[in-house]
Amino acid sequence: MSERIPVKNVSKVEVHQPRRATKKRHSSRSRIYVRAVKGPLETFRRFFGLFFLALFAVLPFIQYNGQQAILLDIGEQRFSLFSLTLWPQDLTLLAYLFIISAFALFFVTTFAGRVWCGFMCPQTTWVYIYTWFEEKIEGSRNKRMKLDERPMDWDKFWRKTLKQVCWWAVAILTALLFVGYFTPVRQLFIDFFTFQTSFWATFSILFFAVCTWGNAGYMREIMCTHICPYARFQSAMFDRDTITVAYDARRGEARGPRPRKIPHDALSEKGLGDCIDCHLCVQVCPTGIDIRNGLQYECINCGACVDACNGVMDKMNYPKGLIRFTSEDALAGGTTRVFRPKLIGYFVVLLIMLAVFAANVIYRVPLEVDIIRDRNSLYRETNEGLIENVYTLKVLNKSQQRLTYTIDVQGLPSYDLIGNNTVTVGGGEVATLPISVATDAYNLEDAVTEIQFKVSTTSSQGETIQVTEPSKFLYQ
Question: What is the distance between the alpha carbons of residues 372 and 471, in angstroms, rounded to a whole number?
Answer without folding.
Answer: 9
